[in-house]
Amino acid sequence: MNDVLSKLGSYKRLERDAGVTELSEILSSNEWITDESVRTLKGDILSLIEDCERWESRQGGLLAASVVLKASDEWSVVFGDEFGERLRIKALELLSDDEFRVRLQAGEVLGLLCISNGCSVYEKSREAILGIIKDNLERNVNDSIKQSDHTSYLAEKLATTESVISEENSGAGYIDASQIFHDTAGWKGLDTGMRCLCCVVDGCGVEFDTFVDSDFLQLIFSTLSHTNRFVRESAFQLLSSLVRANPSDGNARPSIVKHGKELSVALGRGLADNWSQVRLAASVATREFLLGLTERERATFFAELLPKMCLNRYYVAEGVRLYSQESWRLFTQQRGKELVETHICGMVDYYIEQTTSDNHAVREAACACIAELGSKIGASFVQPYVLRLLPALVTCFKDESWPVRDAACIACGNFVKCFADECRPSMPELYRLFFGNLSDGIPSVRQGAAVALVNVIETYGDTELTFVLEKATEGITKIKEQRDLSTKHEGLEARPAVFGVVKATRDNDIELHSNQQMYSCGSLAPKLKRGGGCMHSDYRKPTEPWEVADGFINLLGELSRLPSASQRVSDLLPLVAETTNAHHYTHCHSYLETVWKQLPRVAKGCGKRVFKRHLELFFPSLFYSLDCGVLLTSAAAGDCLCALRDYVGEVILKGRVEQFDSRMVSKLNSVLTH
Question: Which of these, 219, 313, 368, 521, is most buried using a 10 Å CB contact count?
């Protein structure tokens, strides 16, 4: 036993963990229980906990106490009530320890004592636990950073950073460094006090409901909206514990029924929090809250919670997204469409509000939800709100973040298809934005714009088709203007894009690297400007001619599926084939890759008889691409030949290749046999 306790007090975490394991094995056997061994273990645990010099010893003693409390339901019979009371008092004292790991373990010990002795432990400790939370709600950043050895660098930076930054920078989303500290730094006793209370609530179970009154909830609500994200996360975890346990009779707990409205509003704020960890904690609490209600009782809170739950199904953080999708299925019971239609006004208001969020991931999710309204919800329900939804999408269409622009582009295409008359007045501006995305530097954005434009043509017919094809002819021929040294990211930073934003390179001026926006390791995104970013020179490089042509090739591939457009698309095949022979610029292989991916689609849309008239025009560049040395382009060319073989027939394809150049037949055979 002495060896085990020595490990529990070790400086090394691995040895303390080993000591926990060994103590658990010893306590699992009743052979050790003698008056002497119990007395010795009690004394050794308290000695470790009362060590004033080393936090490792204090944590080790609390770990040993936790093992004892978990080992047997009759531990109090063995160790005595006196030991339990001393343990409770020491754990309360250590809730204010300088080391957060000690504070966390002390909270767990108090929770385990509640499991064994019931709510009497909380009754004796309530004033101290709630006092820690109340006393630490506010914090002086300068005093706090001086107390921690781990934040000396941050303290120095905060001391030299102006608290008020220039008006020019504030418009770009820059914020005070001290605010970053408040948002992301640890909050000493407040966060761990919340976690302790969470353990106590879990330990007391449904019996804790007798302590839930207006004053208690107001204290919890103040932490739910706290400036620090760790505190908010712990607060929602506590709220989840409060609403989790239900009486055995199946009825909702009195506190939930009495304070349900306040709880639902607080949960709604958490579901819309800027930090994904807080959103997830709020999502868990929301599920627990709704599970504690009958179906009829849930319906009274859907107006507040459904819009947030629905949007989170598209949220960028995978944990939040998947959990929200499961919760949606759980509570809507295949009636999701009906519930959205019932609460359509609240849904629209919330989605529009979220398109103005400072978080780019939220704006992207809002665009996806608005697109869903247009494609899945009955037109009669959405139509009254189109003139409000469309301007919100247009604003997102001009966003600095390309995922937001892409989502808004697809949503606008859906809305044009579903609400043609309402969208027609906005078409001049929408066309400008569609064509802007069609020539964007991001390939997926160009593809999304092509899909959206096809929806427009499908909706408005031949007049729009003529206009778009004229633009296509003009755009594809632009490749003749391409300079020899094309650069995919000319004038932009060489490092990878952050949050969909690529910035222009600048001179190494020290002023450009001082007093700039701070980032946290857990942040979702910097605060990008919401409007006017589509053509913002700092975030979008000038379009290369080959990128314009590339976008229109994607458009031709999408158009070829429309029977009304296939013949007119086939008329552009000679022009497309001509552009594939231009290999003078650096990124010709990227353009060729797109052509070979779209050519089989165009062929099927045009029909065999029409396409075979143009087939040989593409052979020079197809065989050039096979040997170009760029693996993606070579693979795309090989896949294209295989697809054409399947479509027009192997005999016909080989015959045409032999007629073109008999030396290429062996190369074709090699491609087709792999």
Answer: 313
What 3-state DSSP class applies to 504? Answer: strand
Of the candidates 545, 544, 625, 617, the residue with the CA atom closest to the CA atom of residue 589: 625
48-57, 182-191, 283-292, 411-420, range with the lowest pLDDT = 182-191
**pLDDT exceeds 70 at position 601:** yes
The DSSP 8-state label assigned to residue 500 in this structure reads: T
Q: Where are the domains of the chain?
A: 1-117
- The pLDDT score that the predictor gives to residue 74 is 54
673 three-state secondary structure: coil
Alpha-carbon distance of 552 to 569, in angstroms, equals 11
CA distance 64 to 317: 37
pLDDT in tens, 7-56: 888 888 898 889 888 888 877 776 666 667 777 788 888 888 888 888 99
Residue 301 confidence (pLDDT):
93
Buried b (16+ CB within 10 A) or exposed e, 317-340: beebbebbeebbeebbeeebeebb
Residue 138 to residue 152: CA distance in whole angstroms: 21
DSSP conformation class of 583: -
Q: What is the CA radius of gyration of the chain?
A: 33
Helix 260-271 × helix 276-291 angle, to 10°: 150
- Residue-averaged pLDDT of the chain: 82
Q: Residue 499 to residues 7, 172, 277, 279, 364: CA-CA distances in angstroms?
A: 46, 15, 18, 19, 12
Per-residue CA distances from 115 to 23, 236, 246 (Å): 20, 22, 16
pLDDT at 520 over 70: no
Beta bridge partners of 498: 501
Q: Which CATH architecture has domain 1-117?
A: Alpha Horseshoe (1.25)
- The tens digit of pLDDT for each residue in 605-625 reads 999 999 999 999 999 999 999
Interatomic CA distance for residues 389 and 431, integer angstroms: 18
pLDDT band with cut points at 50, 70 and 90 for residue 151: very low
Give yes or no for residue 327 having a pLDDT over 60. yes
Please report where in the chains the tokens 């229109």 appear, as a residue: 552
In sequence order, what DSSP letters do the residues of 588-630 get, joined into one string? HHHHHHHHHHHHHHHHHHH-HHHHHTTGGGGHHHHHHHHTSS-
Distance CA 237, CA 509 (A): 46
- Identify the sign of the CA torsion 406, 412, 418, 420: negative
Distances (CA, A) of 633 to 378, 486, 550, 579, 629: 43, 17, 14, 16, 8
